Amino acid sequence: MATSPPNDPVSTARDLLQRARGNDALTTLQRAAGTGNIEAWYELALWRLIGHPVARDLPAARQALSMAAKGGHADAAMMLIALTANGSGGRIDWSGALNLLKREAQHHAHAAAVLKLVNANNLTEDGYPQQKLERQHLTDNGSVYYIPRFLSHNECDHIARAGADLFEPARVIDPATGRNIPHPIRTSDVAVIGPVREDLAIRSINLRIAHETDTAVDQGEALTLLRYAPRQQFRLHSDIIPGTRNQRICTAILYLNEGFVGGQTRFPDHDLDITPRRGGALIFQNVLEDGRPDSKARHAGLPVSKGAKWIATRWIRAKSFDPWMGPE
Ligand SMILES: O=C(O)CCC(=O)C(=O)O
Ligand SMILES: [Fe+2]
After folding, report:
1. How many Å lie between the centroid of ligand 2 and the Cα of residue 45?
2. Residues 27-79: pLDDT tens digits?
3. Is 267 in the pocket of ligand 1 (CB under 6 A)?
4. Same structural domain, 140 and 105
5. Which of 119, 154, 172 is the last residue of a domain?
6. pTM, rounded to two decimals
């Protein structure tokens, strides 16, 4: 049965795409965008970000987001602000992004909430903290340490919300069969808070992690949200990636909640169990001074037996890491 043709340009374009008429789809959107249709600009921006059905072009994506944002598109504005701050498709520009957010906050409640989170911190003009936080060394050589007041409770809630709609069960490709199978080690649900979702509250947290670990912010992989339901766990493992040229030198685990049963982070070789406390950050080195993997850094997220455990992990590489490239 024939369906009646959709009458808005975005639906029309998507419909054309479904029928493998990519060029017509693009023309439809570009025409609509030319008449000031902000949904068409937004859709064009998404295509440029995703890299389908057109090539990925981050500067062009930002241009399109800017057009949509100027017309009042709230999601486009938030994405533009994220990309401006993290330097996707342009130079890193915290203060430019903050100015955009201040303007946006006058019209949209979500932007106002993010601005409030950012303003609760005393930041440099590049968005970094002014000083380091109090830390507790858990090993003699300082390879594992804990920062009890790393996040405010509002920041914990914000991180949890920033990725919650993206949760999916952890999976890996089975090398034997090539099939996508449940992850044998990590049974939690995972959600990656990538560069497009790195709003200024998330960005300021990523900058804080860089500051505390004496690393450059672009060494960090995207902040990843993990949620463990009862019986879920992260079995004993090392965060090291075998054979990579850009090793995960250290890891920051942010504890977003408490009140569940179980779920401690255990380092068997240090005889260390860390009980998650809301707002705390556990940071540890995965490599020795000479850069070789530290076998004692292996650790586990013990099974949760009651309630849900929420954390956010940032794995930090030896050199800069491009969040727009897939895993190597
Ligand atoms: O859940 C935990 O406590 C450990 C998480 C972990 O090992 C990781 O995210 O790499
Ligand atoms: Fe780990």
Report:
1. 35
2. 999 999 999 999 999 999 999 999 999 999 999 999 999 999 999 999 999 99
3. no
4. no
5. 119
6. 0.95
Q: How far apart are CA 252 and CA 315, in angstroms?
A: 7
In a domain, 323, yes or no: no
- Hey, which bits of the chain come out as E strands? 136-137, 144-147, 168-169, 171-173, 180-182, 189-193, 223-228, 234-237, 248-255, 261-262, 265-267, 272-274, 281-285, 299-301, 304-306, 309-317
Q: Identify whether 78 is part of a domain.
A: yes
Q: Is 313 in the pocket of ligand 1 (CB under 6 A)?
A: yes
Residue 328 placed within a domain = no
Alpha-carbon gap, residue 227 to 234, rounded angstroms: 11
Q: Is position 1 within any domain?
A: no
State in Å: Cα 178 to ligand 1 middle.
Answer: 26
- Domain co-membership, 141 together with 233: yes
Q: Is the pLDDT of residue 267 over 70?
A: yes
> What is the Å distance from ligand 2's center to 299 Cα?
6
3-state secondary structure of 244: coil
Q: Is the ipTM of this complex over 0.95?
A: yes
**Full residue range of the structural domain in which residue 37 is found:** 9-119
